[in-house]
Amino acid sequence: MRALALRLEPGDDLRLALEAATREHALGAACVATCVGSLTRAALRLAGASASTTLSGPLEIVALVGTLSPDGPHLHLAVADAAGRVYGGHLLPGSIVHTTAELVLLALDDVAFARVLDPRTGWKELVLRPGGP
User: Fold this and answer.
1) Which residues of 28-60 are buried (b: 16+ CB within 10 A; e: fewer)?
2) Which of 20, 55, 66, 91 could join 42 via S-S bond, C-beta 3.0 to 4.6 A?
3) Triad 91, 12, 105: Cα angle to 5°
4) Spatial separation of the C-alpha atoms in residues 17 and 44, rounded to whole Å
């Protein structure tokens, strides 16, 4: 396992930056170890919803978890507003960094992630394959 640290800047799209890092660093399988920062806007797909929800900030990132694969990420984001209300869901493109986003990703060396349509769920779900650099 190896760690990769990233710092995103104001105006960066959190989801798109993670997808770009996956490509740039040839991450066959990775996960988000930690993320702190803030957003001016968060685009989420809430539980059970098919449409996206957009929240306006400033918003503090209180949690970001998920997996990264060449076939795309599966990421859950939780943010808090100025009143301390917390919202969470699937991270979508359009979540824009306000001041910073500091991330540590862990690249997994002995496995490769893929996403394949699962007819039981209707979603592209994680498939684990032997792999490595």
Assistant:
1) bbbbbeebebbbbbbbbeeeeeeeeeebebebb
2) 55
3) 60
4) 16
pLDDT digits (tens, 9 = 90+) for 74-131: 999 999 999 999 999 999 999 999 999 999 999 998 999 999 999 999 889 999 888 7
Rounded Cα distance between 74 and 57, Å, is 23
HSE value, Cβ hemisphere, 13 Å, CA-based, for 110? 1
Angle at 126 between CA 121 and CA 132, to 5 degrees: 170
Cα within 13 Å of Cα(77), Cβ side:
31
Q: Where are the domains of the chain?
A: 2-130
* Token couple for 122: 């209707």
